[in-house]
Design a protein that fits this description.
single chain; about 425 residues; alpha+beta; Alpha-Beta Plaits; eight-stranded mixed beta sheet; 14 helices; about 60% helix; about 15% strand; rod-shaped
């Protein structure tokens, strides 16, 4: 099941990569569209400015054509990526690298054109050099460390080579010699490369954290699948830290059986929706109380439930915790009845402690955390004795003796024969 979910995740991740690529080329297309609009508006509104800056040497038609080609390329890439997404195909790695190379070469080509009508210093200080950084930052959307690194590497190599060619080893004249010295431009190329590596590391970290989050969710779902949705978040977190694999073992636990008295007659007078609301109300705070006292509800039984204290985790005060939970449940039910939140309700709770076999039972499709042993049967029989003694909480002597220092008051009812057992069981009445 886990392996299947990871295959599904890998497939979905590939789709998200394609969606991310489509978003990236869309953003780049928007950049080139804005650049084209800017040049058109500027050329129409300020023709004398272009004449003064470029000395009439810049062919605006060529610039418009170049930006139009770049825009068309991104739109074409978007359409092609959309086709791969619709057909469920993965983007070919070679095509992704080729696309990265072409896109990074766009500002390089524009700088080469600009160099025909301007000085090297002006070219290398032009806004087009900053397009490299835009491309590197957007490469994060490729969700691939190697592609980010490749983008930074191509940008660094192309810019550095172009800069060295333009400055001619420092022989070109300039107002400020530093502008045409090779070293600053080599350093700028290294910064471009570093930006690509840094973007790649960010991408890899995001992928790693997403994968870790997936594994955590899988492990948590596996724990909840084994122990049930009513297991407390604290227990889930502890099991995840310890390792959630459940092996069969003998463990000393305290078992609680709870029954809602006269539930059948109660249900006959009410509709299904009212009964579900009533049970959800009861089980809501009962589950909270059991969890707070370090127990876990193992099974809901319609008009009651079975809870265990001491498995899958033990607080070494399992019997005391069970007694505290039982008393708190009875007190809370009485309080809710007085407030009118629920109809008047009586409970029957039986507690017994001893060694049981714990483990998971089921198939690969569904497993259930199971507790097997005479202790479970005896706890159920003790709960049924509440009708005989007109009580709400009965505990065996094994439970009471283990709960040393309990603040609850108890009345010893003596040795009582329990159905299914040959030997009598010492019984204490707590409520």
């Amino acid at each position: 099941m886990i392996e299947e979910s990871r295959v599904v995740f890998a497939h979905q991740f590939d789709r998200e990569v394609s969606e991310s690529e489509r978003l990236r080329v869309t953003l780049l297309g928007a950049v080139f569209a804005l650049a084209l609009a800017f040049w058109i508006v500027a050329a129409v509104a300020f023709p004398e400015l272009f004449e003064r800056v470029f000395h009439g040497k810049l062919n605006l038609t060529w610039v418009f054509g170049f930006l139009s080609v770049a825009l068309s390329y991104e739109l074409g890439a978007r359409i092609l990526i959309g086709h791969f997404i619709r057909t469920g195909q993965r983007l070919p790695p070679l095509a992704r690298y080729g696309n990265a190379f072409v896109e990074v070469s766009i500002p390089t080509a524009m700088l080469i054109v600009y160099a025909q009508v301007s000085t090297p210093a002006t070219v290398l200080l032009s806004p087009w050099t900053f397009v490299y950084f835009v491309l590197i930052l957007l490469s994060a959307l490729r969700l691939d460390f190697k592609l980010c690194y490749f983008t930074g590497l191509v940008a660094a190599v192309e810019y550095t080579v172009l800069a060295l060619v333009l400055v001619g080893g420092g022989r070109a004249g300039s107002v400020e010699p530093m502008l045409v010295e090779p070293i600053p431009h080599v350093a700028k190329g290294l910064i471009l490369l570093s930006a690509g590596i840094a973007t790649g590391f960010v991408t890899r970290e995001i992928q790693r954290r997403v994968a870790n989050a997936l594994r955590t969710v899988e492990d948590r779902n596996r724990v909840i699948g084994i122990f049930g949705q009513h297991v407390s978040p604290a227990v889930v977190d502890t099991l995840l830290k310890q390792g959630a694999d459940v092996e069969e073992e003998i463990r000393h636990v305290c078992i609680m059986f709870l029954d809602i008295r006269d539930f059948t007659a109660f249900a006959e007078r009410r509709g299904p929706e009212e009964m579900v609301s009533y049970l959800n109300n009861l089980y809501g705070f009962m589950t909270e109380i059991v969890n707070r006292n370090h127990g876990m509800i193992n099974k809901f039984l319609g008009d009651g439930f079975m809870a265990v204290f001491g498995a899958p985790l033990s607080e070494s005060r399992d019997s005391q915790n069970a007694i505290s939970a039982a008393s708190e449940i009875v007190d809370r039910v009485q309080a809710e009845s007085v407030r009118g939140t629920i109809p008047e309700t009586r409970l029957g709770i039986g507690l017994h402690a001893g060694d049981v076999m714990i483990g998971t039972v089921g198939s690969a499709l569904r497993k259930e955390y199971t507790i097997i042993g005479d202790v479970v049967n005896t706890a159920s029989r003790i709960e049924q004795l509440n009708k005989r003694f007109d009580s709400q909480i009965l505990a065996s002597s094994e439970v009471w003796d283990a709960a040393e220092g309990s603040q609850e008051e108890a009345v010893y009812l003596g040795e009582v024969l329990v159905e299914g057992r040959e030997e009598p069981v010492g019984i204490y009445r707590l409520a």
